[in-house]
Specification:
The structure is a single chain. The chain has 8 helices and no strands. α1 packs antiparallel against α2 and α7 crosses α8. The protein is flat, with a radius of gyration of 23 Å. The chain starts with a helix and ends with a helix. It is mainly α.
């Protein structure tokens, strides 16, 4: 394909992706209110456990409608993501060898799976615990009035933050593939990794208590250990491939 043929193909894939996001957003508008109910559930449960009124507020006349529209757009991107990734695949696949196509397919599947795992961990484990701590901190002197938009920002920060953190094995896979890191290097610097993980947990976690930080650190440490295993597999396969190439040269 010529340069302009590539541009034409790219434009077609972009148009299909934009249409998919637009359709997903329209669907998101129809389900954004039930989706908001699911997102608000941990907050309402924390208020109930603290014996407070189970209600969120908005301080701007457009606050509620803005949140519904934001949710619709995010839902649209989520629903359209398989189509968008498929369009990306259709654009790059013709230029890849068969084994490279398998590697890209594995990368996309692993990345999406880890992203969803991080979001699920944030929603079901970290968020409820953090909210219970924050709401029950000192209700004898203060009455919480939780804004729906500020709550949404907190939820988004926790879920996306964990979703990105859970990409660690994928990042280590590519760093090992290009020879930047090895399993020996990762294991040797394990204690420094724990220190970095602790600092990251202290920065990202929304509460100052040690237990929330510990809950956040546990999956990060587990992911680092998993990354060492991933790196070992990549390095072993690279060595075998180099040995085969060396034998073929002889």
């Amino acid at each position: 394909m010529s340069f302009f043929e590539h541009l034409t193909e790219l434009r077609k894939r972009l148009i299909y992706s934009v249409i998919a996001v637009a359709v997903g957003t329209l669907i998101g508008l129809t389900i954004s209110k039930p989706a908001y109910g699911v997102i608000a559930r941990p907050m309402l449960e924390a208020l109930r456990e603290a014996h407070l009124e189970e209600k969120l507020i908005y301080t701007n006349p457009t606050g509620a409608i803005n949140l519904i529209l934001k949710l619709a757009v995010y839902i649209g991107f989520v629903l359209a993501s398989p189509v968008v990734l498929y369009q990306v695949w259709l654009f790059i696949a013709p230029g890849l060898y068969r084994h490279e196509r398998r590697a890209v397919s594995l990368f996309i599947f692993s990345s999406i799976s880890l992203l969803l795992a991080g979001i699920a961990f944030g929603y079901f484990v970290l968020l409820p615990y953090a909210l219970r701590f924050l709401i029950g901190f000192d209700t004898a002197y203060f009455t919480p009035l939780i804004s729906i938009n500020e709550y949404w920002d907190l939820v988004l920060m926790i879920m996306l933050g964990l979703g990105l953190v859970f990409q660690t094995p994928v990042v280590i896979f590519f760093l090992s593939l290009f020879g930047v890191v090895t399993p020996g290097f990762l294991w040797k610097n394990f204690r420094y990794a724990i220190l970095i993980i602790a600092i990251a947990a202290a920065i990202i976690t929304p509460t100052p208590d040690a237990m929330t930080m510990f809950i956040f650190m546990m999956p990060m440490i587990a992911l680092y250990v998993l990354s060492i295993g991933v790196s070992a597999v990549v390095v072993r396969r690279k060595r075998r491939a180099d040995e085969v190439v060396g034998q073929g040269a002889h």
